[in-house]
Amino acid sequence: MYLKEFEVRWNDLDVNRHLANSSYINFMSHTRLSYMMENGFGQNSMVTNNIGPVVFYEHMFYFREIFLGKPIRVSLQLKGISKNGMYFEFQHNFYNHKGENMARCNMMGGWIDLQTRKLRDLPNKLFLTLNELEKTGDFKNLTKDDTRKFKQFPQKLI
């Protein structure tokens, strides 16, 4: 399991003096990008392939509060990927310094071509790299239908 350790800073807290929702999102993003950079899948690779990741959703589940003063570790596992790599789903877990699971997030996204601004397949070399990430116990091969499983669609303002 890929793990990234963080120090909880004063500016990571909200008015209740526990870890702010936006900080969870930032720590997860940093963890994902660290994994990618450490595995040859960083900015240069994205520029060369003219691709970028987009987030479809992030579902957070909070178990216990995280406070200032102790380090946390954020995990990254592959929960699903489509056969062409266009769609991916990650699972993040937040652990305190004792190894207790404080929160979990399931995040789904895809890859866009930065010129056409449309979803695209992941280049094979990058697909193989991403597919080497440790998988969750409920890992699945994703299809386009999985991206709409919550039946949320845009609606125009009338």
Task: Characterise this structure.
This protein has one domain: Hotdog Thioesterase (Thiol Ester Dehydrase, Chain A), CATH 3.10.129.10. The radius of gyration is 17 Å and the shape is globular. Helices cover 21% and strands 37% of the residues. The model has no long low-confidence stretch (mean pLDDT 96). It is of the alpha+beta class and 158 residues long. Strands 1, 2, 3, 4, 5 and 6 form a six-stranded mixed beta sheet that branches.
CATH superfamily: Hotdog Thioesterase
Q: How big is the Rg?
A: 17 Å
State the separation between the terminal residues, measured CA to CA.
Answer: 47 Å
Q: Which H/E pattern describes the elements?
A: EHHEEEEHE
Fraction of residues in helices?
10-25%
Strand proportion:
35-45%
Low-confidence stretches: none
- CATH class (first level) name: Alpha Beta
DSSP strand count: 6
Average pLDDT over all residues: 96
Label the structural class.
alpha+beta
The total tally of domains equals: 1
**CATH architecture annotation name:** Roll
Q: Might you state the CATH topology name?
A: Thiol Ester Dehydrase, Chain A
